[in-house]
Each structure stands twice: as C-alpha cells, then as structure tokens.
Design goal:
Order of helices and strands: HEHHEHHHEHHEEHEEEEEHHH
Strand order of the largest sheet: 4-5-1-6-7
Distance between the termini: 26 Å
Number of strands: 10
Shape: globular
Number of helices: 12
Largest sheet: 5 strands, antiparallel
Helix content: 40-55%
Structural class: alpha+beta
Strand content: 5-15%
Oligomer: single chain
C-alpha cells in the first residue's frame, strides 16, 4: 500500500512506521526487504502511465482535458540550470552564488526573459516526469496502482505486510508462512517490471534481512543478483530498527543541525550588515524546543 502523497490516510510516517514495528513485534521471526527504485520519476514510462490513467478512469481514451494535463506533464518545457547560471554571471561551484541565485525574486528580468526565451527547451523523451510538479506525486501513485496491487497480493497471501513511500518500500514476511524462496520470487517480479521497461529495482539500495531472536542479519548474498549488505540495521522513512530499539536516523538528525547552523549564520550575517535580527524569529520557531508549540518543528516530530 502506498503511504506517500496521500491525504485520505489521516496519518503520518511516524504512525505508519509504528504499525510496521508492531507487526514485527507480533512476528519476531521474519524476513524484511527494504527496496528502492532506480531514478523513479525520471523513468516513468509515458505509455504505461497513460494506460494506468485510462484503466483508473475506465475509459479507452483520455478525454481532451485529461490528455492536456497528461501531455503537459510528459512533454514539458524547461530551462537548463547551467544556462541560467551563465546568464546571471554566477558560478554554481561557489556557495555564495548558489545562495544569491536562490534568494533572487526573479532568476531573469522580464526583459531578459523575452530576450533569451529561445533558450527554453521541450522535453521529448518517452519516459520521465518532473518531480517538482504539483501533479507528479499523484500521477506517480497512479503509475504504481497495478504494481502495488500485484506485490501487495503476493505479500498478504503469505501473511506479510507491504508499504511504499514514493520510491522506497518495505516488505515484512513472517518466517512461519514464508521462506527465502518467496523473496526470490519477489525479486523476479520486479525483474519482470524491468523487462517491460516500467520499473527497475536498484540492487545497491535494496536489502533483505533475517530477523530472529531480536537479532538482524543482512542476507543479501543469498540472492541473484547480490543485494546490498553494507547496512546492518533497517532504515525506512527516517527511522532505524536494529532488532531491539527504534531510533531516528542519524542522517535526519545531522541534516537538522546542518540546517540550523546554516540558518543561524544567515541571521548573524544580516545582523552584522544591517544591525537587526532579520529572520531570528523564524530561527527560534524552526530550531528551538520553544518553537514546537507553534506549527511544529523537529522537536514536535520527535515527541
């Protein structure tokens, strides 16, 4: 079941991970598969996406309004970022130039836009959609409808659970109702999707664990092709599980402190230049325990 980009679930990633952890507690001897899809948004097959949309709408052909949206998301216009840097006389390798560019109200003035609009290009490939579009997340879930159904039916028939967050997924199969052969069959199913040119499992970001007696062992070498054996703990949607305890991923925490440091430097820079604390209230709201009582921040997430 997909859990990303949905408002109908009335839940969040914390609650979803809790459900998976409770399932593991109920089935302490399990096989756990963590997977990742290669360049998910960049490899969305346009023809297959159209088929899934028609199937969802129960039509043989998309109506003109749906087709207009489909065409716009698959044959979109774009401006090469390197070209924009060049026109702004900025160096993408210099950090100060990146910050300056991201803070500009306009990347190009109206006159420059009209002058250089011939630089706009049209995306012509038969696969891939822009990840940042407001429609992309919804279309990605439509794209995965049949795949999710097939994988979920296979997993549930063996007493397991399947959850997908965008291009990451987790599958938990209890040992008393499944075996490593079932994991092998799952890998073959994903290989079939790859052969059809609609989805590709990324072996270097896919792991299979054996959980038994509160101990987790990576058994990626048992499969063909061999899967990633570097990770010794389960990592999914910002959490880690080592067989005993659930923790926040170190990467999540380090990203929090990096952003706090970066924001604080920006506030200090504004103070020394202009002698006032521009952005200080935002700094406290986002990175102070006191800020959690507003709209919420990292401390709210932890609690």
């Amino acid at each position: 079941m997909p859990i990303a980009y949905r408002t109908d679930l009335h839940t969040d990633t914390i609650a979803e991970f809790r459900k998976m952890h409770q399932f593991i507690i109920q089935h302490p001897s399990s096989y756990i598969m963590i997977g990742d899809f290669t360049s998910f948004f960049d490899r969305i097959n346009h023809q297959y996406l159209k088929e899934r949309l028609c199937d969802l709408l129960q039509v043989d052909k998309l109506s003109s309004d749906y087709y207009a949206i489909f065409k716009r998301i698959t044959k979109y216009d774009y401006w090469d970022l390197k070209d924009l840097y060049r026109l702004n006389n900025l160096n993408p390798k210099k950090r100060k130039d990146k910050i300056k560019m991201s803070s500009k109200p306009r990347i190009l003035s109206q006159s420059d836009y009209k002058k250089y609009r011939s630089h706009i290009k049209r995306y012509q490939d038969n696969k891939g959609i822009p990840q940042g579009s407001s429609n992309s997340a919804c279309l990605a879930n439509f794209y995965m409808l049949e795949i999710d159904r097939l994988i979920n039916e296979f997993v549930v028939a063996r007493g397991g659970i399947y959850r997908r967050y965008s291009d990451d997924f987790i599958i938990i199969l209890p040992m008393d109702t499944s075996s490593t052969d079932d994991i092998e069959k799952l890998i073959l199913k994903f290989e079939a999707f790859k052969d059809k040119g609609i989805l590709e499992l990324q072996p270097e970001k896919t792991q299979v664990y054996k959980l038994q007696s509160h101990s987790i062992v990576n058994i990626g070498h048992l499969f063909t092709p061999s899967l990633n054996e570097k990770h010794k703990t389960i990592n999914f949607i910002g959490f880690t599980f080592d067989g005993n305890a659930v923790k926040i991923r170190e990467k999540t925490t380090s990203k929090y402190y990096y952003r706090m440091h970066h924001k604080a430097k920006g506030v200090a820079h504004q103070y020394y230049r202009n002698r006032y604390y521009k952005g200080a209230d935002k700094l406290y709201q986002l990175y102070s325990p006191n800020g959690q009582y507003g709209k919420g921040n990292y401390f709210t997430y932890l609690s």
